[in-house]
């Protein structure tokens, strides 16, 4: 038998929505996958030719782009930030709905006019997307890279504005911030390494199974 296909899944909040989708695609991981006390990172499934690895959301794209995993599940926010040419994203999985937005303190927003910005300082996990977004309209974005808790940056003076994911809006609200611009709507995608798509026979039927699982 050829080597199993390795499917990279993020260990954060997408996982809860991804598991039922995997089940609809006929993929059920071994029990240790759902066991928080397990330190294993690679797991067998009920399909002998499919293994799962559980990695951080941004690392899903890196594993698949380099061919260390053949397929993965990742947010379109991560894809936009990396822009890897080796990745093919054939299926919108319709999970992990949120948006990538610019936010600032409510009192600042009351007096602010985004059309007047020429230079902005932004704390974000998404510096490339942020710079691209602002360049598009001639605004220079100076980004401070953070890996989480962006919402603390304005009040502590790190940067007056942030670019972060918003879903219910609760995190912004509880930190005194308001959304002033939406950069992109986000959902999770099935991604495939382009070389694996051509050379690994199991990949194309598996992509079809995910398409059917989304439609089901
Ligand atoms: N509030 C949200 N609502 C819906 N989807 C979200 C939300 N926040 C993040 N996501 C999606 O889930 C993905 C993973 O986000 P999550 O917050 O679980 O990872 P993280 O904790 O930031 O990552 P890491 O594992 O690097 O710490 C994001 O890339 C995005 O596509
Ligand atoms: O609009 P809301 O529904 O409040 O969701 C937004 C929050 O969700 C994400 O963080 P997450 O909770 O995944 O944790 P993180 O800070 O570890 O990224 C995001 O970074 C926001 O902080």
TrEMBL record:
InterPro entries tied to this protein: ATP_PRibTrfase_cat (IPR013820), ATP_PRibTrfase_CS (IPR018198), ATP_PRibTrfase_HisG (IPR001348), ATP_PRibTrfase_HisG_short (IPR024893)
Keyword Transferase belongs to the record: yes
Domain of life: Bacteria
Top enzyme class: transferase
Pathway, per record: Amino-acid biosynthesis; L-histidine biosynthesis; L-histidine from 5-phospho-alpha-D-ribose 1-diphosphate: step 1/9
EC number of the protein: 2.4.2.17
Entry keyword set: Amino-acid biosynthesis, ATP-binding, Cytoplasm, Glycosyltransferase, Histidine biosynthesis, Nucleotide-binding, Transferase
Pfam families: HisG
MF terms in GO: ATP phosphoribosyltransferase activity
Localization annotation: Cytoplasm
Reaction catalysed by this enzyme: 1-(5-phospho-beta-D-ribosyl)-ATP + diphosphate = 5-phospho-alpha-D-ribose 1-diphosphate + ATP
Domain ATP phosphoribosyltransferase catalytic: 56-211
Family: Belongs to the ATP phosphoribosyltransferase family. Short subfamily.
NCBIfam families, per the entry: hisG
Free-text note on domains in this protein's UniProt record: Lacks the C-terminal regulatory region which is replaced by HisZ.
Subunit structure: Heteromultimer composed of HisG and HisZ subunits.
Function: Catalyzes the condensation of ATP and 5-phosphoribose 1-diphosphate to form N'-(5'-phosphoribosyl)-ATP (PR-ATP). Has a crucial role in the pathway because the rate of histidine biosynthesis seems to be controlled primarily by regulation of HisG enzymatic activity.
Stated name of the protein: ATP phosphoribosyltransferase
Organism (species): Sphingomonas japonica
Biological classification of the source: Bacteria, Pseudomonadati, Pseudomonadota, Alphaproteobacteria, Sphingomonadales
């Amino acid at each position: 038998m050829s080597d199993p296909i390795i499917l990279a899944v993020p260990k954060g909040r997408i996982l809860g929505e991804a598991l039922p989708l995997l089940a609809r695609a006929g993929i059920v991981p071994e029990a240790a996958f759902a066991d928080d006390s397990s330190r294993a990172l690679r797991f067998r499934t009920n399909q002998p030719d499919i293994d799962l690895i559980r990695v951080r959301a941004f690392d899903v794209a890196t594993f698949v782009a380099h061919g260390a995993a053949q397929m993965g599940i990742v947010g379109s926010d991560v894809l936009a930030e990396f822009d890897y040419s080796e990745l093919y994203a054939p299926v919108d999985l319709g999970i992990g709905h949120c948006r990538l937005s610019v936010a600032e303190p409510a009192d600042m927003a009351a007096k602010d006019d985004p059309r007047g910005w020429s230079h902005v300082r932004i704390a974000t996990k998404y510096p490339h997307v942020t710079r691209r977004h602002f360049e598009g309209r001639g605004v220079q974005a100076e980004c401070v890279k953070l890996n989480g808790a962006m919402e603390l940056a304005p009040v502590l003076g790190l940067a007056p504005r942030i670019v972060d994911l918003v879903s219910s809006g609760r995190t912004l609200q509880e930190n005194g911030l308001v959304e002033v611009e939406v950069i992109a709507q986000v959902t999770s995608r099935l991604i495939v390494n382009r070389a694996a798509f051509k050379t690994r026979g199991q990949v194309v039927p598996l992509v079809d199974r995910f398409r059917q699982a989304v439609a089901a």
